[in-house]
Amino acid sequence: MIVLTLTFQLEPLDMTWKDCFLRCWLVCVKEDDKEEERDQDNNDEMLRPWMEACRDILENGDLFMSTPKFPIELLPWLYLSDLHTARKVQLLRDQGITHVLSTNRMPLESIQAMTREYKSHGILHKAVPGEDHDGYDMIGSHWKDCGKFMERAKRRHQQPKVLVHCAHGSNRSALIAAAAMLLLNDDNDDNDNNPPLVRLVRTLSEKRGRVLTNRSFQKQLCLLAKQEGKLGPKPTISSKQQPRTDGKTP
Fold this sequence. Notes:
GO terms for molecular function: MAP kinase phosphatase activity; protein serine/threonine phosphatase activity; protein tyrosine/serine/threonine phosphatase activity. By secondary structure, the chain is an alpha/beta fold. The chain has a domain at 65-228: Protein-Tyrosine Phosphatase, Chain A (Alpha-Beta Complex). It has helices at residues 17-58, 83-86, 89-94, 108-120, 138-156, 172-183, 196-208, 215-227, and strands spanning 72-75, 78-81, 99-102, 124-127, 162-165. A five-stranded mixed beta sheet has the order 1-2-5-3-4, sandwiched between helices. The protein is globular, with a radius of gyration of 23 Å.
């Protein structure tokens, strides 16, 4: 709560109450902005160890794959892809994909055509108009709808396989897939030394290669983990020194 002590010098004499109110309102707006900036700074400082650990992994070239083969299995029920592969409907059908989630903005006609083709092969489709640029709130704008779609797929289908894609399978779809790995995964195996968030990011990087290059998306994943109590213990060792989950040396 903001408490303001305002002192006005009523000069010039022709200042109206409307002028006084406007000046007061402007002061309040400035104070609100300052409080938001302070909260943002506090959040950034609190999350810094996790953000640095994740960034270590995501920007460590030793983990990058040359050309990933889509679709990529992240979990038995969750796959990551680019748009080119997502359009190969028969391939998806052959691999048992039951649901497709499009996270990149597309013309309505394209979405409708994709939905019809998927439906003809028994695949359910949902699309959200995600964008990939610094500062875009992918989680705030689309996670609720995407999470419900995937949760419903898991609940209603005996053997669900959800494919999440965007244009290149690296930022928008990767962030939504990472959020699903964080919040919708039934596997509670915590037998390694990595915090849940850091372990997830390492797994994603090992399987996809160069991924989550949008730093604001990295931050959104860390914020989501904090909000949902999924950060885990504070990282104390550089992620570059952590053992790889596939047994190889970085």
